[in-house]
Amino acid sequence: MLVYELVPGGNLDKRLHSPDPEQLLTWEERFEIALGLGSALCYLHTEVEQYCVVHGDIKSSNVLIDSSGQAKLEDFGLARLLHHGADPRTTEVVAGTIGYIDPEFVNSRRPCAESDVYSFGVLLLEIASGRRPTPPAGRPGGASARSSDARRTCPRYVWPERRLDAADVRLGGDFEEMEMERVLVTGLWCAHPDSSQRPSMVQVMSFLRPEDAELRVPPAHRVLELETSHGSTRSSLASTTYHTPPDSGYLMTDQ
């Protein structure tokens, strides 16, 4: 018999995207969830003896909310244990949810903490904007869409002069601007296409927590492409145009 903790708040995906206004999370609740998830990842990456635990599937539907509004990170089915300081080994099967998966991981097949940081960055932007990483597949701009126009394929909050415009309109402007800006800018750095430019989770928490933290907006960058296999056909997908339903649609590539 397995006994689990009751988490009546549901998952973060439903709370962010439900059309029911009663389910809408306030900015204060969202910010606390972001901090809680950041702390959880910081622990997994740095505080497990001898190992870095790479979760491998950070996304809003894998975050549960308890009765006190605290976030619970679940589903460690894709998690990997990596020795601190050791080079990650190449994996034969790449798995993760489209829209959140790190394109560098797909291309290199080497799981690492930086891949979790990328997914966390996407999730931060989702928390702040109230929008999934991309439109649902089958709709204009969905998974099959391609565009060479960076202003179409990249979120509009990449552009410094408009980043607060990305805040979820359903919040009605009821948020702390400094907190919103820190979440958006930190999310952009975490989701940087170059993993060497991404902060560690320790740095992420130092950006999110202090009121006097300063972090410049990363410059607009090219859309990183990755190679995926669908049967015998290989194709390229822009990293900013993925989408699958939150609980399904794994990107699997066999060596």
From TrEMBL:
<dbReference type="InterPro" id="IPR000719">
    <property type="entry name" value="Prot_kinase_dom"/>
</dbReference>
<feature type="domain" description="Protein kinase">
    <location>
        <begin position="1"/>
        <end position="224"/>
    </location>
</feature>
<keyword id="KW-0325">Glycoprotein</keyword>
<keyword id="KW-0732">Signal</keyword>
<protein>
    <recommendedName>
        <fullName>Protein kinase domain-containing protein</fullName>
    </recommendedName>
</protein>
<dbReference type="GO" id="GO:0005524">
    <property type="term" value="F:ATP binding"/>
</dbReference>
<keyword id="KW-0675">Receptor</keyword>
<keyword id="KW-1003">Cell membrane</keyword>
<keyword id="KW-0547">Nucleotide-binding</keyword>
<keyword id="KW-0472">Membrane</keyword>
<dbReference type="InterPro" id="IPR050528">
    <property type="entry name" value="L-type_Lectin-RKs"/>
</dbReference>
<dbReference type="GO" id="GO:0004672">
    <property type="term" value="F:protein kinase activity"/>
</dbReference>
<comment type="similarity">
    <text>In the N-terminal section; belongs to the leguminous lectin family.</text>
</comment>
<keyword id="KW-1133">Transmembrane helix</keyword>
<dbReference type="GO" id="GO:0002229">
    <property type="term" value="P:defense response to oomycetes"/>
</dbReference>
<dbReference type="Pfam" id="PF00069">
    <property type="entry name" value="Pkinase"/>
</dbReference>
<comment type="similarity">
    <text>In the C-terminal section; belongs to the protein kinase superfamily. Ser/Thr protein kinase family.</text>
</comment>
<feature type="region of interest" description="Disordered">
    <location>
        <begin position="227"/>
        <end position="255"/>
    </location>
</feature>
<dbReference type="InterPro" id="IPR011009">
    <property type="entry name" value="Kinase-like_dom_sf"/>
</dbReference>
<feature type="compositionally biased region" description="Polar residues">
    <location>
        <begin position="229"/>
        <end position="243"/>
    </location>
</feature>
<keyword id="KW-0812">Transmembrane</keyword>
<keyword id="KW-0067">ATP-binding</keyword>
<dbReference type="InterPro" id="IPR008271">
    <property type="entry name" value="Ser/Thr_kinase_AS"/>
</dbReference>
<dbReference type="GO" id="GO:0005886">
    <property type="term" value="C:plasma membrane"/>
</dbReference>
